[in-house]
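fyi for ur records
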Amino acid sequence: MKAVLVRDLSPDLSGVELAEIAQPAGEVLVRVRAASLNYPDLLMTQGTYQFKPETPFVSGLEMAGEVVEATADSGFVPGDRVRGGAKTGAFAEYVALPAAALRKVPEAVDFAHAAAMGAAYHTAYVALVEIGGLTAGQTVLVHGASGGVGLAACDLARAMRAKVIAATHREDKLDRLRAIAKPDAAILNTGRFREQVGELTGGRLCDLVFDPVGGDVFDESTRCVTFGGKLLVVGFVAGRIPEIAVNIPLIKGFSVVGVRAGEYAQRFPERGTRIAEAIDQLASEGRITPHVERILPLAAWREAFEAMARGEIIGKLVLEP
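which gave:
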């Protein structure tokens, strides 16, 4: 079968190729119909993600497709439409996974959107709902709002009737972000953006700040959280891991909380199942919809990775084998 194979780690994708490899075997064999690109997929080709698989490995966190073969006790049968994945393996014509790593796709959701729904919405749900305790009427500041995870956070917060301030560092993305994310407001998170947040909230500031960016954005975000609020640390796309003097959250009365969504589901599997069910239900009701900006054939994997590296995409990019 064809697969995107990472033979060697490199900063420029020179160690990655579309290769012919043996079809995998396992508890459930799935014919991949769509696989979505996530930022960790790019980082893993460089060896800069916290999870560092041994080379060679097949890239790809998540996919959706049809069951081809399944063991009798797996709970799946050939023809079932499923979504799921692991840390690797999705960018291929077939993937073999344990049954616990798969869920049936809601009838109202196609393969491309099902593939784009997992990691991003799971991260957003863990951060905003499980850890953040989001309720209707609260105000959420979402950084990196044009990315897959950030856009999912905007979509989920809006579905839960929160007020959403979407933030990006790209001025050329603001109009598209407003049209796609439909936030209550969209701002640039460069420089001293606290003043804008204060004006938009009548001085109250934000109950939750969702931050997958880090660096200067985190530093300024400490000025944007209301008393009793939470600054949710999701990642460090900016590159610099920020530091904070503990007197700041003490005096201002807010919490800084780390979000490791994948680890959360592993440590609390019953909660992970509940989260997946909640996401499926929201999708079935049409209350959340992943934004798939571009669908490319698997052979165009390099175009997809390079577009992500340049920050061109709003939402998700999907590969179809």
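The first strand starts at residue 2 and ends at 6. thats all i got for now
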